[in-house]
Amino acid sequence: xxxxxxxxxxxxxxxxxxxxxxxxxxxxxxxxxxxxxxxxxxxxxxxxxxxxxxxxxxxxxxxxxxxxxxxxxxxxxxxxxxxxxxxxxxxxxxxxxxxxxxxxxxxxxxxxxxxxxxxxxxxxxxxxxxxxxxxxxxxxxxxxxxxxxxx
Length: 151
What we know:
Structural class: alpha/beta
Number of strands: 5
Strand order of the largest sheet: 3-2-1-4-5
CATH class: Alpha Beta
Number of domains: 1
Radius of gyration: 14 Å
Largest sheet: 5 strands, mixed
């Protein structure tokens, strides 16, 4: 049985970028860490090269009504740099609405202490897991409209 390539998830922020990785069967996710944007590009390129990542799922910050707002304009250049840094991977965009809120709720439910939840990056890496898990779940539930993002 050939496994699909591994997938990584990204929660982009101007200061910090959360990165997550799916298991080889694409069932679960785990946080990899939080990086400055340039370091995140290098880490994602490493994951493509060393971990067999073939799909990078980037959180796409749509507005509440599903439109592309100003936040998309901040992520778009990162997506372009990511395609150059990791040309061996497909970059797809995933609606990230509510991902940070859901990640925080998950951290609370998992019993992560408030002090740790407040550490820079904990929430960003958890949000990357939520974004990636949403995409994985959509892949299993059947065909959906997938965005490959700006060129």
